[in-house]
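In this supplementary section we document a worked example of the pipeline. Step one takes a protein sequence of length 147 as its only input; no multiple sequence alignment statistics are reported here. Step two produces a three-dimensional model, which step three serialises into structure tokens for compact storage. The input and output of this example are shown verbatim.
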Amino acid sequence: MNPDQTLPRRSLLLGAGALGGGALALSACSAEPSGSSASSAAGPSVPPGTPVKVGKLSEVAVRGTATGKVNGRAVVIFRPDEKTVLAYDAACTHAGCPVAPAGEDFDCPCHGSSFKGSDGSVISGPAQAPLGKLKAAIDGEWITVTA
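The serialised model returned by step three reads:
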């Protein structure tokens, strides 16, 4: 998907509906050229430790990032290659502000910390600890995250 396009609302709703309402609707694109965004789906959460379908793999370009919520928890996604997806807790390890996609990385808008999409490590502070890693996988055409 082209990073300058927005994900059609229907795609978001179809993905969320197929997940039983307890998941995040993931988008790897936004009107902002620097990153991506997603909308969270309303509904009950799934039990902790359960993989949740967060969006279609085709919605996140290779080297692309996205963000959203799983069970009310903000998460960020990075797709390093065709066969891998990575997920992190979106809470900045400095003061807990939600980080946002910034190209292949994630930036904290509150105090300016930056984190690598490839491993969640700190690029620049004030944060000193990496983003918390979550379990992410590819399940057919879907990206799943366990949070």
